[in-house]
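Field reference: sequence -> structure
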Amino acid sequence: MAKNDDTFRKVIAHAKEYGYIFASSEIYDGLSAVYDYAQNGAELKKNLKDYWWRSMVYGNQDIVGIDASILMHPKTWKASGHVDAFNDPLIDNKDSKRRYRADVLIEEHVDKLDKKIEREVKKAQKRFGDAFDKEQFLETNERVLRYKKEGQDILKRMGESLAKEDLADVKALIEELEIVCPVSGSKNWTDVRQFNLMFSTKLGASADSAMDLYLRPETAQGIFVNFQNVQQTSRQHIPFGIAQIGKAFRNEIVARQFIFRMREFEQMEMQYFVKPGEELEWYEHWKQKRLEWHYSLGLGKENYRFQDHENLSHYANAATDIQFNYPFGFRELEGIHSRTDFDLKAHETASGRNLKYFDPFENKSYIPYVVETSIGLDRLVLAVLSNSYQEEELENGTTRVVMKLPAIVAPVKAAVLPLVRKDGLPELAKEIIEDLQWEYNVQYDDKESVGRRYRRQDAAGTPYCITVDHQTKEDGTVTIRDRDTMEQERVKISEISNRLRHTVSARDWIAQLKK
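Structure field:
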C-alpha cells in the first residue's frame, strides 16, 4: 500500500480497534500527545525491547545494561547543558492562535519537495516500464536534482540559523517559503522564540523545603553519571558500552503524528566509551551495526536512509540519523552521535569527582570519548505498525487487512482454533495451549467460523493459526496456517513447539545480523 495520510489514518484506527494503542484517559477526552499501550501494543513494545536488549547486551560481551532513575540531582541537567540550552524554536500564528515548532514547519515544507520527487519517479516508471532505472533517474533528472538541492539548501540554512540562535532568520525563512498556518491558511506569524522542553517537579515534604527537580528529558545522563561505578564493578576495559531502556519526558510545543512525537516516551540507547582519537572509527562501526539491526526486522531496506547532521550539537564531532519512511515521510528513528568527551568532562567539573579511566594497557588515565546510539522506542513501534499494515486483494476477489508483523516481535505468536465447539475439539485445543503458553504467548479462539477467525488473527498480526479438527483426534496432527502466505500444512502436535521456536526465536533472528 502506498504511504500517505490516508494510510496513516487507517493505521491509527487499526491500532485502536485491535488493542494496540489507546488515547490516554480517553473517557475524560484524553490528554494531548499521551497514549496508553493496550494488550497487543504492550506485548509488541516488550518484544521490541527484548529483541534490542538481547542483540545489544547479550550479543556483545563488551556491553552491559543498567536502569537509572528518572529523577536525578538537578545539577546533572545544569552540567549537561539542558537547563540553559534544551530548547525548541516556537512560533505562533496570530490568526489561528495555534503554536508550532518553527523547524517542523520548515521540515514539512521540504517534505513536499520530496513528494514532488516521488511523483516524478512514478511518472517516469509509467513511461519507461521495465526499462526504468530508478537510481540513475534520481541522479540525473534535472527536475529531481533541482528539488533535492532546494530542500538541502533550506535545511542547511535553517540548521545554521538555529546553531547561531538567529531566530529572526528562521522567521525570515518561513516567510520567504510562504509557509501558511495549517489551520487558518494565513502567513501572519509572530517572532520565533525559544522554549525549554523540560518538565519541572518538586522533591520534599513541604513547599518551603522542596527541591526543584526535572523529569529527565533523555536517558543518556543516567549512564554518564554511573560510568565509573559500572566500569569498576563490571571490570570492563575501554572500549565498552553501557545500554539502557527507559522513559523520558519532554514538554513538546506541538506533539502530533500519533506516537511519533509524545510528551512521555521511551528510549533504547547505548553509550560506547572509547579511547580519544578512535571515536570516529567506532562511529562508523556503530552506524553500520545499527542499520543492519534495523534491516533484520524485515521492514524493507528501501525504507531506511542516513541523514547526516549539517550542524552539530555543542557536544558532538559527528552525527547522523537513521531515518525511516513513515506514511508522512522520512523521519528520525535512531540517532548515532560521536559525543567526544563533553559529558564526562562536564560532570567531572560540576561534581568535583575524578571520572577519568585508568588504562592498564597504556598505564595512563584519560576521559573516554563516547559514541551514542539512541532509538525512540515508540517511533520504532510506529515504524513496525505502519509498515506491517496491508490491504490485500485475494484471488477470489475479496480483500483482507493483514498486519505482517515480524514474527519475532508479534504480540501473539499463534492462535489455537478448534474447528467446532464440540466433539472434544475445544479440550484438545486447550491442551495444546497449556503445552505452549509458558514458552510463547498463544491465544485460544473459538468464536465464529474458522474463516472469520483467520481474518481476525490476520488483522491482529498473529503469525500462525493452529486448527484442531476431527482428524486431530485420529492421528494427532493439526493444521498450521501461515499468516503471510495463507498456506496450510499438517504437522504433529509434538512438532508444534519446535516449529514456532524456529520461526520466532530471538537467536535465529539475531543470527541474521552475522550473515
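Note: The chain has three domains: 1-85+197-377, 87-195, 412-514.
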